[in-house]
TrEMBL record:
CDD domains: ParAB_family
Start and end residues of each AAA domain: 1-167
Record protein name field: AAA domain-containing protein
PANTHER family: P-LOOP CONTAINING NUCLEOSIDE TRIPHOSPHATE HYDROLASE, PLASMID PARTITION PROTEIN A
SUPFAM superfamilies recorded: P-loop containing nucleoside triphosphate hydrolases
Superkingdom of origin: Bacteria
């Protein structure tokens, strides 16, 4: 099983949209997927039209088995739901020195014993105890970023936090993925910032997800993009030089490759 967490201290950059779209895409492709809602806003539930619930808190803060709290939101897509009581999880990670290693161990053990092949963790904005615990539990940290000047800062914050964790834990943190979202081809700003990302992070930058109003509509209808607008440009990418680049379909292909690599 591989764990991917979606982290950026900047809010509204497409963390939840990406976790849900990629998670459901993998589930449709036959993977057994666990999506953990680690954001007290409970946006995963809103987007998938399932009830918010304190499953994440009951699992970690109250130490109940994960199995009791997961919900199958779509075939093969299991959600450990969150709500504002997720605050208690954050408090525990902050106050108890052994809570972080416990978190890391329990995610893997329980998700694997439930037969999950992929675990995605959606985090809220911020870079706090929960985000760092999720980083440590992850094989890959996905950093969605909308290529605009102020939004770029969040990427440097996440990668430097990962470097600090590397320093203290001896882990290799090359395993991050920068996923540019809300890309607008005709804006010079989008192009400049995308180039800046590629110059700094090279092939760790994945092809961009186009800005697309259908994404906002799908969330409002409680549907995933595969259900609401599978042919839209956020999924299919943009036409450039006779071929298509970017979009969630391409990101999904790359993710499957990582999963198959073992
Ligand atoms: N490619 C896109 N094109 C247009 N709108 C998008 C795109 N991706 C996401 N959005 C919209 O932008 C808003 C923020 O997206 P999302 O909730 O995924 O961000 P987030 O990083 O999870 O936010 P938060 O930090 O609050 O958790 C939502 O309204 C979403 O529908
Ligand atoms: Mg979110």
């Amino acid at each position: 099983m591989k764990v991917f967490s979606f982290i950026n201290q900047k809010g509204g950059v497409g963390k939840t949209t990406s976790a849900i779209t990629l998670g459901h895409g993998l589930a449709i492709g036959g993977y057994r997927v666990l999506l953990i809602d680690g954001d007290k806003q409970g946006h995963v539930e809103r987007h998938l039209k399932i009830p918010k619930a304190g499953g994440f808190r009951r699992w970690f803060y109250e130490e109940e088995p994960m199995e009791k709290h997961i919900v199958e939101a779509r075939p093969n897509l299991w959600v450990l739901p969150g709500d504002k009581s997720t605050n208690l999880v954050i408090g525990k990670l902050r106050d108890e020195p052994l809570a972080t290693p416990l978190f890391v161990r329990r995610i893997r053990q329980e998700a694997e014993s439930l037969g999950m092949q992929v675990c995605l963790i959606d985090l809220g904005p911020g870079l706090d105890h929960l985000q760092t615990a999720a980083m440590m539990a992850s094989d890959y940290v996905v950093i969605p970023v909308s290529p605009r000047f102020l939004d770029m800062d969040g990427v440097a914050e996440v990668t430097s936090t990962m470097a600090e964790l590397n320093y203290s834990k001896g882990k290799s943190w090359e395993r991050f993925i920068i996923l540019p979202t809300m890309y607008v081809r005709v804006w010079r700003e989008s192009g400049t910032r995308l180039k800046e990302l590629v110059d700094t992070f090279g092939s760790l930058v994945w092809p961009p997800i186009p800005n697309d109003p259908r994404v906002v509509e799908s969330a409002g209808r409680g549907m995933t993009l595969w259900e609401y607008a599978a042919e839209t440009k956020a999924v299919k990418g943009i036409e450039a030089g006779g071929k298509r680049i970017g979009g969630y379909e391409e990101a999904l292909r790359r993710m499957r490759r990582l999963l198959e690599e073992g």
